[in-house]
Here is the input.
Amino acid sequence: MMRAGPSQEEIRKHNLGTLLRHVHLGGPTSRAELTSLMGLNRSTIMALTADLTAAGLVREELPKDTGRAGRPSLVVRPETARVYVLAFEVGVDRLAAARIGLGGVILDRREAARAREPFDMAQVVGTLAGFARQMRRKTREDTICVGAAAAVSGVVRASDGVVRIGPNIGAFEVPLGEELTKRLALGLPVAMGNEANLGALAEHTRGIGAGCRDLIYLHGDVGIGGGIIVNGQLLGGYGGYGGEVGHMMVNPDGRPCACGSRGCLEAEVGEPALMEHAGRYGEMIGRDAVRAVVDAADRGDVMAQEALAHVGNWLGLGVASLVNIFNPEMVVFGGILREIYLGSAAQVRSRIATGTLRATREQVRLRTSALGDDATLMGAAELAFAQVLADPLEALSRVAP
Amino acid sequence: MSQGPILELRGINKSFGPVQVLHDVAFSAYPGEVTALVGDNGAGKSTLVKCIGGIHPIDSGEYFFDGERVHVSGPRDAAALGVEIVYQDLALCDNLDIVQNMFLGRERRSGLVLDEDTMEEMAAKTLAGLSVRTVKSLRQHVSSLSGGQRQTVAIAKAVLWNSKVVILDEPTAALGVAQTAQVLELVRRLADRGLAVVLISHNMNDVFAVSDRIAALYLGRMAAEVKASEVTHAQIVELITSGRSGELGLKNGNGAAS
Ligand SMILES: Nc1ncnc2c1ncn2[C@@H]1O[C@H](COP(=O)(O)OP(=O)(O)O)[C@@H](O)[C@H]1O
Ligand SMILES: [Mg+2]
Ligand SMILES: [Zn+2]
Here is the structure.
C-alpha cells in the first residue's frame, strides 16, 4: 500500500520548528534570509512568522541599520527574554543551574561547589531546586519556561533519567530525573543527559563545531567523558550510553579506574593521574589543581612538564583510536582537557601523527571548546529546547500559564 | 584548505653587512591556516618576518602575494597588501586608548572621516567578533593592559583592517599560562576565519596546539616546511637543532642548501 504523504498540519509543524530553530541558533534573521534558507516563498514565511509571533516565541522588528536604500526586510528575532528553559549540571565539583533564553542566551545562573562524596540525592535535588526557585522568582510575569534538562557526570538512561553509573559523583542507579521532576514541579519532565554528550551537542550547535557534521567532544572533569556526533547526530548507542570514551582501554596494565577496570583513558589522563605524576596528589583538586600543574610546567617545573607529557601521550593514543574509528572533522577538548591539551599538544599530536591512518587524520582539526565552562549547561539547554523546536505550538500549549 | 598560498617567498637572501642571515629561503602561508615558524635563537625568524613586512629590504629573491609577483620596499607596501605584523616589541602607543590604537596610522583610504563613536563601535564589534571578553573598557589606555590584552588589541587591529596575513612574532613569550591559552585560541580563530596566520614560537606545545604547518629555519636556511599532522615533536626538535631529521630537512649537515 502507498503511504500517504505528510499532512498539511505536519508540514506546518515541521516548518514552524525549522524557522524557530533558525532564529534560535542563528539569532535575528531577516524574512528575506529565512525565505532563501528554508526554500519557501515569502507569503509562507510571513504566515509562519505570524503564527510564532502570536505564540510569543519570536518578534518581528525593523533592522537597526541596513545602510541600504529601499524597504528593509523585517528581522525575526527570538523572544529571548520571554521564553526560556532551565538547565542544570551535576558535575564532580559543582552543581550549577542556569536560566537560558530562546536563542541560547544565559539570563541568569547559580553555582555551588560539590564535595567529592557519595551521591546525596536530597542535597543535589535540594540545591538545584533552590536555584530554580530563586531564578524563577526573579523573572517577569509574562515569561514562560518551555523545558528543563540536566547534564550529569555519569551514564544516564535517557528514557527515565536514571543515572546508571556516575563513578566520579558516587552515583549508582539513582533516579535523579524523576526526583528532580518531582521537586521542580514545573509541569514538565526534566530531561537528562550525560555531560559530555550534551557538551558535544552545544559545541556542535553553537560552539566551535558549528557547521561540522562529524565531531568528537572530549570533556575532562575528574574523569573524561566523550560525546560523538556522527553525520550531525549524537551517537547514542542501543541504550543511549554510547560515547563513553573515558573508559576506552588504552593501557591494559595501567592505572585502576573508578569504573572497576584498568588503564581506561580517564584513569591515565584524568586529574588524579596528572596530579600523581606531578607529585602533587592531594594538594589541590579540580580545575585549579590542573591549572597549577600547567602553570608550573610553563615556569619550568620539570616534574610538571613530564607529568603533562606523560598524560598527553595517553591522551594522544586515545584520540588516535577515535580518529581512526570515526574519522571526525573536529576533535574538541573541553573542561580541564582544554588546559591539558594546550599544555601537552606536542605529545598529543605526535601520537596522532604516528598512530593513525593518513586518510583518517589529514582533515581532522583539533580545537579547544568555544563555550568553555558553559558548554555542558548550554548543551542541557539545547536538550531542554528540543520539544519546543520540534513542535512549537503543541509544546507551548502544554506549558502555557 | 587545499588553496594555494596567499604569501609565498622564494630564494630570499639577506645580509647585514658581511653577515648573511638568510640563505635562499622559501616560505609560504596559506589562507585559513596557521603556519608556525620555528628555529633556534638567531636562526633568522625575526629577520624573515621583517623582510616580509618591508622593514628590511631583501637582497634577492621573489615575493608573491595571491599568486602575483610583488615588490615590497617598505612597511606601507606590506600593509597595502594586507600583511599585518605584530612584532615582538609591540607597536602600540601606551598613552592612547584601545580605540585610538586600533585606528592609529590607518586613516581610511576612502577619505571618510570617522567620528569617535563609529570608531568605538567598529573596535567593539571586532573584539566581540573574536569573542574577546577580557577587555573592560575600550577607552582605557593601553598602558593599563596586561601583556595578553595588548596582544589581543594588536591582533584585533589586524582583523579590523581586513588583513589577509597576520604574522605574530613570539606573541606568548612573556605571557602566563591563562593568557597564552587565550592568545592561542585567538590565533586559531583568526585562521578559522580565513586569514593566513604565521606564528613564531619556541614553545612546542603552543606550536602543535594550533598549527596546520610548521616551517623550521636552521642557521638562516629553511630546513623543512611540513604539515603539522604529519610530524612528531621529536622530528621538529631535530630539524631545529640540526637542520634535518631522517628524510626531512637539509641534505647536508653543515646547513648548505641542497
Ligand atoms: N639589524 C641587524 N643587524 C645586524 N645583524 C642582525 C640584525 N638583525 C638580526 N641580526 C642577526 O641576524 C641573525 C638572525 O637574527 P633574528 O632574525 O633576530 O633571529 P631569530 O628571530 O630567529 O632569533 C642573528 O645572528 C642576529 O644577530
Ligand atoms: Mg626573534
Ligand atoms: Zn574506566
Q: What stands out?
A: Residues 94-162 of chain B form one domain.
